[in-house]
Design brief:
Elements lengths: L1 E6 L6 E6 L2 E7 L1 H4 L9 H11 L8 E4 L7 H11 L3 H13 L3 H8 L8 E4 L2 H10 L6 E11 L2 E9 L2 E2 L3 E4 L4 H11 L8 H7 L7 H7 L2 E3 L5 E3 L13 E2 L6 E2 L5 H7 L11 H28 L4 E5 L6 H4 L2 H4 L4 E4 L8 H12 L19 H10 L1 H7 L2 E4 L3 H13 L4 E4 L13 E5 L6 H10 L8 E5 L3 H4 L11 E4 L17 E7 L5 H14 L3 E6 L10 H10 L4 E4 L2 E4 L7
Parallel strand pairs: 1-4, 4-5, 6-14, 14-15, 17-23, 19-21
Antiparallel strand pairs: 1-2, 2-3, 6-7, 7-8, 7-9, 10-11, 12-13, 16-24, 17-18, 18-22, 19-22, 20-21, 23-24
Helix pairs in contact: 6-14, 7-11, 9-11, 17-20
Length: about 575
């Protein structure tokens, strides 16, 4: 059975391919289109997945979509009749949903030389999220929870996974949403782009729990059963026609907060306005209120159905600060988050749900994120040869390595010398995080490394932290918790006596958003960090995504272009190292 899973006509459009229950390829459309969070039909991601497996559409038995127009239909109709939202808002949603019914036509247009004759199956949005979390985990029994903005008229859902079965036992329905709460506050704080919530999470570390917490807490009511409800007077999404675009290109979303919010908290911040202590405190309060709601829900679910293990998905599962506190603030002792926990991951969830719907068995845990395109040494060398005159004009020195150990040691020494390294290896990561195959690397010991990276490449807000990639076997020596965090989706406290040694990856509150690196899943990256430890005594490197205000690079030519237009010192493309003349120490 071959299942093509899709997240389509939504932000972070994506595709994956499952063969007899095992994942063989997955990628987000943005990586090919070069438009962040690209929304629409993931035609290029589909083409990649089929090519990677050596298949065509004729081989696909099922297409699984992480949307079901029939889900919660009675609740939708009841809400429209009782609440009477603007007619234009209703029609806009109907128009968007009508596009999801044309998958066969879209496939025919995207791949006109191939013929699909299999079945198309819809999977309720949050059930797909639950499936992407539980079925991808190693847990035999677990609570599965999905929390995001909205999907199929719900903003959260939960159920129990046991062996081959997964139930959906409860939901939080429209218009109440923890994701909308956080997104509205993100917009209010002057970060209007889709997906900017992580900026508020980073800014929160600079705030204090004071008056702002009580002010923000009034936006969200916690129910006695662990659920939550918005105070709707502060929001617009439930009654007004909010501009949004999901049908091709960069997703956009109009303002979610109402004038009542500004009357309660003061004027909203414009994107170019300076960040003040007040904004820091409001970001802190937003994060704190979010965490209180999340943990109230998780604790209530655990009380009703005790488990040691929890599997999380949905856009809110990208809140790595909250994720790192689950073991402290709930009874759960084991946590699993898939690398693409948000809507892109719904493609995998839909595919897994359809596989199990037809009696398939679990295919093993997804313990790494390397499911995207890869490029051979021949392709890399052909690219460099075609650009040779340009490289010569820039004085770029090329060195070809035939020994992994020498490559790791030479690159590690460059990092220790203060160089900024572009690191392009193997298969591209699935999900939003660069995890050692499409990464920019630096020395975590340098206090000025954040400034160096922002000046040379990233050009982003100075309050945003960078992450450490840590040897799995050294985590307990440097962090207060010891756990597998392969997808950089949890923040842990760094041991107090170690913080001064790694200032570039230590947040202002003494924490770090770590990625654990295991030799078995990424031997070359593990070897590089091991070489850095041999040189410096520090078993980690600073890791940030290989991009410059664009999606993470996918192909070698994008990595080379980024290297040439920025002030990156060294680029390692597979086995080839490119070094600028007089590469400075920053």
């Amino acid at each position: 059975m071959i299942v093509l899973g899709l997240n389509s006509y939504h932000a972070d459009a994506a595709a994956c391919l499952l063969i007899d229950g095992k994942l063989v390829a997955a990628a987000e459309e943005e990586r090919f289109r070069r438009v962040k969070n690209w929304a629409g039909f993931p035609s290029q991601a589909i083409a990649y997945c089929l090519k990677e497996a050596g298949l065509t559409l004729a081989d696909v038995t099922h297409v699984a979509i992480n949307r079901d127009n029939r889900a919660n239909i009675l609740r939708k109709l009841t809400y429209v009749l009782v609440s009477r939202p603007q007619f234009s808002a209703v029609m806009q949603r109907i128009r968007n949903r009508s596009k999801w019914a044309s998958v066969s036509e879209e496939l025919a247009q995207a791949l006109p030389d191939q013929r699909f004759s299999g079945a198309i199956e819809q999977v309720e949005h949050h059930y797909a999220h639950l499936a992407s979390a539980f079925y991808a985990s190693s847990f035999e029994d677990a609570l599965a929870v999905s929390i995001d903005g909205f999907g199929d008229f719900a903003s959260a859902a939960w159920g129990r996974g046991s062996g081959q079965s997964l139930t959906l036992d409860g939901r939080v329905l429209f218009p109440h949403s923890l994701g909308i709460f956080y997104q509205a506050m993100t917009q209010y704080l002057g970060f209007p782009k889709y997906g900017d919530e992580y900026k508020v999470m980073g800014l929160a570390a600079y705030g204090k729990r004071a008056q702002a917490f009580d002010e923000v807490r009034q936006l969200l009511k916690l129910e006695s059963n662990g659920s939550f409800a918005l105070d709707l007077k502060f929001f617009r999404h439930h009654r007004e026609d909010i501009a949004y675009e999901w049908s091709g290109g960069s997703p956009t979303l109009g303002a979610l907060f109402s004038p009542e919010l500004e009357r309660a908290l003061g004027p909203s911040r414009k994107p170019d306005d300076p960040l003040t202590e007040r904004h820091h405190d409001l970001a802190f309060a937003t994060q704190a209120v979010f965490e209180d709601a999340l943990f109230a829900l998780l604790n209530a679910l655990h009380k009703n159905d005790p488990h040691d293990c929890i599997a999380l998905a949905g856009g809110c599962a990208y809140n790595s600060v909250a994720n790192g506190k689950i073991r402290d603030r709930t009874p759960f002792s084991k946590v699993y988050l898939q690398s693409a926990a948000g809507d892109a991951g719904g493609a995998i969830g839909a595919a897994l749900a359809v596989w199990h719907r037809h009696g398939g068995a679990r295919g093993g845990a997804i313990d790494h994120a390397y499911w995207g395109p890869q490029y051979s040494g021949v392709e890399i060398k052909d690219l460099l040869q075609s650009r040779r005159s340009e490289l010569d004009r820039e004085g770029i020195v090329l060195r070809d390595f035939d020994d992994d150990g020498a490559l790791a040691t030479t690159t590690a020494q460059a990092i220790a010398d203060g160089k900024v390294i572009g690191w392009f290896q193997g298969r591209m990561e699935w999900g939003p995080r660069a995890l050692g195959n499409r990464s920019i690397l630096g020395d975590p010991r340098r206090k000025d490394m954040k400034d160096i990276l922002n000046i040379k490449i990233k050009r982003r807000e100075t309050f945003r932290p960078f992450a450490p990639s840590v040897l799995r076997e050294r985590v307990a020596d440097w962090f207060l918790k010891d756990d597998d965090v392969p997808f950089m989706l949890q923040v842990f406290a760094i041991r107090e006596d170690k913080r001064s040694r790694i200032p570039a990856v230590t947040h202002v509150d003494g924490t770090g958003r770590l990625q654990t690196v295991d030799r078995s899943t990424n031997p070359r990256y593990h070897a590089l960090i091991s070489a850095f430890e041999s040189i410096t005594g520090v078993p980690m490197v600073l890791n940030t995504s290989f991009n410059e205000n664009e999606p993470v690079v996918c192909r070698p030519q994008e990595a080379l272009d980024c290297f040439l237009r920025t002030k990156m010192d060294v680029l390692v493309l597979g086995d080839v190292m490119l070094t600028r003349p007089d590469a400075s120490r920053g």
